[in-house]
Amino acid sequence: MPRAAAAARVTPGARVQAAIDLLDAIVAAARDQGAAADTLIARYFAGRRYAGAKDRRAVRDLVYAAIRRAGERPESGRAAMLGLAADDPALAALFDGAGHAPQPIDPAEPIAPAGIAPAWLEEKLGAAIGAEALPALLERAPLDLRVNRLRGSRAEALADLPEAVPTPHSPDGLRLPEGFRIEATDTWRRGLVEVQDEGSQLLARACRAAPGMTVIDLCAGAGGKTLALAADMADTGRLIACDADARRLGRLAPRAKRAGAAIIERRLLDQGREEAALSDLRGAADLVLVDAPCSGTGTWRRNPEARWRLTPQRLQRLVALQARLFDLAALLVRPAGVLVYAVCSLLPEEGDGQVEGFLARHPGWRIEPDGLDAGLPVGTGRLLTPAKDRTDGFFVARLRAP
To answer: What is the spatial distance between Cα 356 and Cα 365, in angstroms, rounded to a whole number?
Structure first.
């Protein structure tokens, strides 16, 4: 059958049923710590090539609207979609059972209630940043870029991308309209820009990395902040990117090549045995960045289903891991060197509470100014929030070794 004819069969009702099927998979993955929603959506459409771009976009929009609306993890994908339909009569009318559309609505069916987050978590966040700031955690995130100074200037990038505007706080930041296909541009292909939220750019700026330094990015992941540090170092010195996730760390090599960052050394760590793997760097680093694994409460604009994954028990495990990595980082910093601690979380126990605990365990260390003009001072550090700063949510603190 021709593609156009097959695509024509994807009716509005069938799109709703497709969204329900995807939501079932996303709910199950959130419960079982499975794949992220974006990954599941990509897999779903990889096997349904008859669905055109318009269909895929419509289904994706329905899925994410239902996810954002349901604070608690829903009973099912249908319950999540019924919650959306309860606010939209036109959507509810598509539950007619015709063709591939979902079956008619039974008034006794469970409907996912609306909310910001699971009740225990919403209470914590409201106390931390104020209830009025919570809705911004689920707004759609803008598309932010960092201009790579190893390849050129922000003025050059703006000339290449007339749709972009400078971000308010990062001198290397640009913001593009949602949905802009930046990876299809020559500007991206030649490494002049990198996709990176302005908040992440500001964390790298708080490090104040400089040419010739020895710098360790202890939890580098795929290396977004590592690349920013390489640019601040003018690609001179020594920059070690560490992580325990081989798949994520493996993504750094092609990114570094495109960015023109030649000084980056990658080091895969064995979780629980990091100190032995880093013994040659003990007391050697001018700067260590610990962007620690965390609850991700600051990233819900991009990953709204993440709030369905978090439990009090998982949060406790993350807090213990953060403290261990914080202590490990201290071993790597030279006398009078700098340690920058950060999390993409708005919860005090992952931010200010961690720094307070570290200072109690390590006499002689002191907090020093981070030099940022965004966010708000909070105890020992600074908090960036979607509501105030239009960035992802981050806590950052800069510490000086004795």
So the answer is: 11
